[in-house]
Design a protein that fits this description.
The complex is a heterodimer of chains A (160) and B (200). Chain A is of the alpha/beta class and 160 residues long. Helix content of chain A is 31%, strand content 21%. In chain B, α3 crosses α5. Classes of the chains: A alpha/beta (160), B alpha/beta (200). Chain B: It is found in: Cell membrane.
């Protein structure tokens, strides 16, 4: 009997966690390489629609971002549920877009000014009325190159 | 002196440090969506000019109402059929188009240079629907441009454009630009958007 007892009383060997840091570092490096720092804190819902005929935006520093959508849940009490425009970190009025574009353009070098693109990051549920107003303001600011930023996927997914 | 072994450094907290860094990066970064549909807006015209005369058969009218229903050439249509309808219209080749492969229907467009797609939407239309329509229309153009590019140069148009924009591409970029221009002239993107209507 004592033979069997002796076997049972043996402690479980501790699992070596020596390689855990390596695994975590591997994940860390993956995320450091594959992602970029957040530039703006979004105050709106921003579920972009899907499209599959997309082209990549070329130079990151030559892109101006205009966001639009419903205020996200924690801002709804203050700002309501009507879709709004966000520029940089603040809610803005449609009429502020022209000034924003002009300021962005001034901060770029002369020879690059004609290559500036405006990226419209608009929530899929937004009405076209707001988008048309934004586009009209962009035309007033002479920012004619735009990009409807989308997620890659089948366009039929937009209908759901 | 007796050989003294260096005391082993305890690496148990290394994982914690790495986790801390990992979580920091997870929170402060995003995987950017940096692709989309490129468009060029028309300049604002101070005085309304007379529109150039267009034959009605050269206009492909696409209407979207506030319920996101699609009306193409005065007929209701599903989104999935729009791409083929646009291809048929652009590629019809009624007259003056040697490379078109359409039916040559006299009631449809003369040639891709004259064919205009007119997109109209209301202010209540959803943005996602609008993007879906734009996507299908761009797809129609891309399909035709790819076909011609494959026939003439043995390379699809989207591939040519991707190479042209790729800084590491080491082919002849001038030739490529020339070819892209040729294809663009064969099927120029003529997509006109009307000011959205107030729905009644």
């Amino acid at each position: 009997m004592s033979k069997f007892k002796k076997k049972k009383s043996g402690d479980l060997p501790a699992i070596s966690t020596a390689s855990l840091p390596d695994i975590v570092f591997m994940l860390l490096f993956f995320f450091m390489v594959a992602t970029v720092m957040r530039e703006n804190t979004l105050m709106i819902q921003n579920d972009l629609p899907y499209a599959d005929q997309v082209e990549k935006l070329q130079k990151k520093d030559l892109v101006m971002y205009v966001y639009a959508g419903k205020p996200s849940a924690r801002y709804q009490r203050q700002y309501g549920t009507e879709a709004r425009v966000q520029l940089n970190d603040k809610f803005a009025d449609v009429s502020d877009i022209k000034q924003f574009i002009i300021e962005e353009r001034e901060s770029k070098r002369e020879e690059l000014k004609s290559k500036l693109t405006t990226s419209l990051k608009v929530d899929g549920e937004t009405n076209m009325g707001l988008v048309s107003d934004i586009k009209y303001e962009l035309r007033r600011a002479e920012a004619y190159r735009i990009n409807y930023t989308t997620r890659k996927g089948d366009a039929a997914q937009n209908m759901q | 002196m007796a050989k003294r072994s260096a005391p082993e450094v305890n690496a148990g907290s290394m994982a914690d440090i790495a986790f801390l860094l990992l979580i920091f990066f997870l929170v402060t970064t995003t995987i950017e969506t940096d692709a989309g549909l490129n468009r060029k807006l028309p300049p604002i015209q101070e005085e309304p000019q007379d529109p150039p005369p267009l034959k009605k058969k050269n206009i492909f009218q696409v209407l979207i109402n506030q319920q996101n229903d699609l009306l193409v050439e005065e007929k209701e249509m599903e989104l999935s059929d729009l791409r083929q309808a646009a291809i048929d219209f652009l590629d019809n080749g009624g007259q003056g188009c040697e490379y078109c492969q359409g039916k040559g229907d006299p009631a449809s467009s003369d040639n891709p240079n004259k064919a205009v797609i007119l997109l109209e939407n209301t202010r209540e239309t959803d943005y996602s629907m609008y993007i879906a329509i734009q996507n299908e229309l761009v797809a129609a153009y891309n399909f035709l441009r790819n076909r011609e590019a494959n026939r003439l140069f043995g390379m699809s148009f989207t591939e040519m454009e991707a190479n042209f924009n790729d800084a590491q591409y080491n082919g002849n970029k001038e030739l490529l630009e020339d070819r892209i221009g040729t294809i663009r002239d064969m099927f120029p993107l003529k997509l006109s958007e009307a000011e959205p209507k107030e729905s009644k």
